[in-house]
UniProtKB/TrEMBL annotation:
It comes from Fusarium oxysporum NRRL 32931. Residues 57-225 form the SGNH hydrolase-type esterase domain. One of its GO terms (molecular function) is hydrolase activity. InterPro entries: RhgT-like, SGNH_hydro, SGNH_hydro_sf. CDD domains: Rhamnogalacturan_acetylesterase_like. The lineage of its organism: Eukaryota, Fungi, Dikarya, Ascomycota, Pezizomycotina. This is SGNH hydrolase-type esterase domain-containing protein. SUPFAM superfamilies: SGNH hydrolase (SSF52266). It holds the Pfam family Lipase_GDSL_2.
Length: 270
């Protein structure tokens, strides 16, 4: 009987039954079995909560030289989010500096009104100080803590660096990519393979065009304004591909998405 306790739920069933003048009390009597079948078919009457994105990671996500703000600036109300990513962060320093606690606090404070989605993208700095086993263990712990706090964890593989050798991108984050995917699969959470998608796009446009996304000359890791828009769009397209239910909360840019898909250099202003 609990599922029929709200007036909204009863109105929904009446609308499906095309009852113009509906005595909602009938749902507790004669038509209860039929009402139950309707709710089962439609998966309940309550709409899924809008997302609140909590972005965690290193400088390739952070405000400044990362893609994170491009995602947040493209969300549609009532969706929202916060970018907690920090330059130089690892899965260890992010915790020791209190940033991970901030992420979990945001989960707890938003989970009643939103689906609190924590995106987790590290690797660039972890590979300098941690073993792959340590990196994997840290990601797994983060996922578990997000779940325990009442949030949804999404792993994102590392944004590619844009350094070429013999005409191809040097894939020096592939081990971290594979480790992150393995952790996500084991934990049963979704992942966005940004590393593969960004590598594919950068290979398609070539070194000369890829360098146009450098935050400063010679910096083939961080992103300027155009780079943030382009690689932010890659993240958004990957996200919607994995979570179709989030599409209505994220502004589209079909022209930019198509250019990326076709491997054509884009400025982000399309």
């Amino acid at each position: 009987m609990k599922v029929y306790s709200s007036l909204r739920g009863r109105k929904f069933i009446c609308s499906v039954l095309s009852v113009k003048f509906c005595d909602y009390s009938f749902l507790t009597m004669k038509f209860l079995p039929l009402a139950a079948s309707i709710l089962t078919l439609f998966g309940g009457v309550e709409a899924k909560k809008s997302p609140f994105f909590i972005l965690t990671g290193d400088s390739t996500v952070a405000t400044g030289g990362g893609w994170g703000d491009a995602l947040l600036n493209s969300t549609k109300k009532p969706a929202g989010g916060i970018n907690i990513a920090k330059n130089g962060a690892t899965t260890v320093s992010f915790r020791s500096q209190g940033l991970w606690d901030t992420a979990l606090d945001n989960v707890k404070s938003h989970k009643k009104t939103h689906e609190a989605i924590v995106t987790i993208q590290f690797g660039h700095n972890d590979q300098k100080t941690l073993t792959l086993e340590q990196y994997s263990d840290n990601l797994a712990t983060m996922i578990g803590e997000v779940k325990e706090a009442g949030g949804t964890a999404i792993i994102i593989t590392s944004l590619t660096r844009r350094t070429f050798k013999d005409g191809k991108v040097v894939e020096n984050l592939s081990n971290e990519r594979d480790a992150a995917i393995a952790v996500a699969n084991k934990a049963g959470v979704k992942y966005l393979d940004l590393n593969t998608a960004s590598t594919k796009y950068v290979n398609a446009i070539g070194q000369e065009n890829a360098d146009k996304y450098n935050e400063i000359e010679g910096d083939r890791t961080h992103l300027n304004f155009s780079g943030k828009l382009v690689f932010g769009r890659i993240v958004m397209d990957l996200l919607v591909e994995k979570r179709r239910d989030l599409a209505r909360y994220i502004a589209t840019n079909k022209k930019l998405s198509q250019l990326i898909k076709d491997g054509i250099y884009a400025t982000g202003a399309e």
